Amino acid sequence: MAQRLLVETWRQGRHLGVPPPALSDSGFACYSANNEDGILLQIFDRIGTTNRVLIDIGSGVPVGANSTNLLVHWAWNGVLIDADGDGLDTARAWYAAHQLVPWLPAFIEVVVQPEAVDQLLSDHGLTGTPDLLLIDIDSVDLWVWHDLTIFKPRVVVVEYSHFWGPHRSVSVPRDWTSAADGVADPLYCSASLEAFVRVGRRKGYRLVAVNDRRFNAFFVREDEAGDLPELTPEAAFAPPAPPDGAVSWSKEGLPGQWVEID
């Protein structure tokens, strides 16, 4: 109920000519780990929905996921993809027990490889243009989006490596492994924000927001973005600082092999 009242407030404000709040100011967490739920809600209030279909690659468990609020409270339908079978079992049980979910999402257990992402989605009957794609696999995230051609989602959310700051355009290589110098390192994954911006621009997307912890980025397809202002990487890293507990982005020379993204 509170979310619907919030959306109605936004809509009444637009009707009265009141500028909508900045996406960063509209964030809140219902199921998301940070303020992603509110940002997504305002994005789709601004650009509308077409089919309320989402694909979540690296979905994890429902509590903490960026897809759960839309599936539970806004009657979306979705496909949840993850390599962790135990996590998917937890998600299946959670959604089956949740009385508010109008229909269960589909679940796919697989390790997503960039060169196979189109075939994977085709094999499961996914075509057309979903409203939302989320990618959070802590590995070759950039390359999965780069190689995705079967459709162009209206909104894409990715997790980036904020340690590189606003200017470096780098990613782990396609043949990424989780070990850096033989030791697993959680910092050796994904790509910098600037790298995602460059790939997104070539695919026809505009960066419009980042979450309050500065590691999730929200892109909207240019032909759907309307009056949503573009966010530059510099502005995404500008003060105020992220909440306590967020890691500083000033570190350079992260472990492992990184490749430059043009």
Give a quick rundown of the structure.
28% of the residues lie in helices and 17% in strands. By secondary structure, the protein is of the alpha/beta class.
Q: What would the keywords be for this entry?
A:
alpha/beta, 8 helices, globular, 28% helix, 262 residues, Rossmann fold
CATH fold annotation: Rossmann fold
In terms of DSSP E residues, the strand content is 15-25%
The major sheet is characterized as:
7 strands, mixed
Low-confidence stretches: 245-251
- Full CATH superfamily name: Vaccinia Virus protein VP39
The top level CATH class name: Alpha Beta
Q: Tell me the overall shape.
A: globular
- Strand sequence of the main sheet, in spatial order? 3-2-1-4-5-10-9
SS summary, helix count:
8
Report on this model:
With 262 residues, the chain is α/β, with parallel strands linked by helices. It has helices at residues 2-15, 36-47, 68-73, 85-97, 117-123, 141-147, 193-203, 233-236, and strands at 53-57, 77-82, 106-109, 132-135, 155-159, 170-171, 179-180, 183-184, 205-210, 216-221, 259-260. The protein has a seven-stranded mixed sheet, sandwiched between helices. 40% of the residues are buried. Mean pLDDT is 90; it is low at 245-251.
SSE topology sketch:
Blueprint: H1 2-15, H2 36-47, E1 53-57, H3 68-73, E2 77-82, H4 85-97, E3 106-109, H5 117-123, E4 132-135, H6 141-147, E5 155-159, E6 170-171, E7 179-180, E8 183-184, H7 193-203, E9 205-210, E10 216-221, H8 233-236, E11 259-260
Parallel strand pairs: 1-2, 1-4, 2-3, 4-5
Antiparallel strand pairs: 5-10, 6-11, 7-8, 9-10
